[in-house]
Amino acid sequence: MRLARLVTAIATLMLAPLAHAQGVALTPTEGDYIARDFTFRSGEKLAELRLHYTTLGTPHRNAKGEIDNAVLILHGTGGDGKSFFRPQFADVLFAPGGLLDPAKYFIILRDGIGHGKSSKPSDGLRMAFPKYDYDDMVAADHALLTKGLGVKRARLIMGTSMGCMHSFVWGETYPEFMDALMPLACQPTAIAGRNRVWRKLLMDGITSDPAWQGGNYTTQPEAGLRTAESMLLLAGGAPIVMQQQYPTREAADAYAESYVATNIKAVDANDLLYQVASSRNYDPSAGLEKIKAPLVWVNSADDFINPPELGLAEQFIPRLKTGRYVLIPASKESRGHGTHTWAALWKDELAALLTRSERR
């Protein structure tokens, strides 16, 4: 299991306190947009780049005939658009009368490059697949919205984890494209320190496994994937929840072994390597003043990946002139890095953002 699925799995361990699953009835529509002759920042090209997407709701057009109710929601590393159908997110936001009710909004849930049903290394190219990065992913998403779905401006762009970082890239690269931004669980700066260390250990674990064979393996490199899944488990873990669920050495050991053994069966080594490596040159810190849209940036105090003690928010938020920073305290209700998907914890901030960014 990769990071986005991992943090959701851990967070779901104690579902009852926050999510009262209503079983929201969703009617998704799926499609594929083909970006032809797509050129990556590396100079590599794909004759056909497939971007898979799922939508909820119906486009509404204003007096000029332009779609004015599009909401783009961006998933985390290893996830896909349907990650947001889980009850702790969907039952809170997509419910009738909810903040992102599909009866009001045209919601776009795409699978980023290298993820889900979009083009990825495991389709056949393996390590010959273009070495995409976050700028490539955002450029491809922009093409999907503008050329594929006819969206010239988004009512809201929000994202979790990797999608959080993409939100900052969106805000700088296309500052006039959105009415509002809501990045959840990331930092707007280069990935360094412990955050880079665990990613490097994960990637090295895969590539140092003799079975990897430069990416041309005949069977998945199991030892490398065990290292990778172990790192993901720690990075995405919710400490208070896990302490409650596994209060003894035996319980913790059994969970760790069962988890890794089960989830190495659900991942392709090349796909995972590319997904984690795509963050290598992310660093929007120099251009934060380019962001014009009202923004709410949310992190949680128990996030291993984005620990608040680094003081990065205090450094960057003064430069986000339309921004507000929110730190959710660690508690029995928070979910570590996965707090980003527990909408009950931050939905009031989203409501306020939608109100202050409303088009006049």
Quick recap:
The chain is an alpha/beta fold and 360 residues long.
Care to describe what's here?
With 360 residues, the chain is α/β, with parallel strands linked by helices. It has a single domain (3-193, 277-356), classed as Rossmann fold. The chain is 33% helix and 15% strand. It has 11 helices and 8 strands. It has helices spanning 3-11, 87-93, 134-148, 162-173, 193-207, 222-236, 239-245, 249-263, 269-277, 312-316, 347-356; strands at 29-39, 45-56, 70-74, 106-110, 156-160, 181-184, 295-300, 323-328. Strands 1-2-4-3-5-6-7-8 form an 8-stranded mixed β-sheet, with helices on both faces. α2 links the parallel β3 (70-74) and β4 (106-110). The chain is globular, with a radius of gyration of 20 Å. The termini are far apart.
The percentage of residues in β strands lies in 15-25%
Quickly count the helices.
11
Low-confidence stretches: 6-21
Let me know the largest β-sheet: 8 strands, mixed
Number of strands: 8
Secondary-structure element sequence? HEEEHEHEHEHHHHHEHEH
Question: Which features would summarize this protein structure in a list?
Answer:
360 residues; alpha/beta; Rossmann fold; eight-stranded mixed beta sheet; 11 helices
What topology emerges from the helices and strands here?
Blueprint: H1 3-11, E1 29-39, E2 45-56, E3 70-74, H2 87-93, E4 106-110, H3 134-148, E5 156-160, H4 162-173, E6 181-184, H5 193-207, H6 222-236, H7 239-245, H8 249-263, H9 269-277, E7 295-300, H10 312-316, E8 323-328, H11 347-356
Parallel strand pairs: 3-4, 3-5, 5-6, 6-7, 7-8
Antiparallel strand pairs: 1-2, 2-4
Helix pairs in contact: 1-6, 3-4, 5-6, 5-9, 6-8
